[in-house]
Design a protein that fits this description.
120 residues; mainly alpha; 4 helices; transmembrane helix
Length: 120
């Protein structure tokens, strides 16, 4: 087992305002760059406060669920139902991400509907 570096400093917790700001940015970032924004946010900010961690996990789980829907949609485009799946996933992704950003900005914990829990 290796000892931790004496130079490693734990990251200080974020202020409540910063937690809300980063949470809103990750929810909105999911609209534009899908699962990448929540993944980066989760990896960088998961230990900086309970509110921001909850929102990073919620956004990441929702975006991964949407990724599965997109893959299923692409796989079934031959049957033409895939186009509907892709369109529905796109609309739901935008709508629920905006609702999550609004709730987060108000300091509320938002739970995405239909999200599979991959990360806890």
């Amino acid at each position: 087992m290796t000892e931790p570096s004496p130079y490693a400093q734990p990251s200080p917790p974020l202020s409540p305002a910063d937690e809300k700001t980063w949470s809103v940015l990750v929810h909105i970032g999911g609209i534009f760059i899908q699962w990448i924004a929540p993944l980066i946010g989760y990896l960088l900010l998961k230990d900086r406060g309970p509110f921001v961690r909850y929102n990073m996990v919620a956004a990441l789980n929702f975006q991964l669920t949407l990724l599965i829907a997109y893959v299923v949609g692409v796989a079934t485009t031959f049957f033409l139902v895939g186009i509907l799946i892709i369109l529905a996933a796109s609309v739901l992704g935008i709508v629920f991400s905006i609702l999550a950003a609004i709730a987060t900005n108000n300091g509320q914990y938002y739970r995405y509907p239909f999200a599979i829990e991959f990360v806890r």
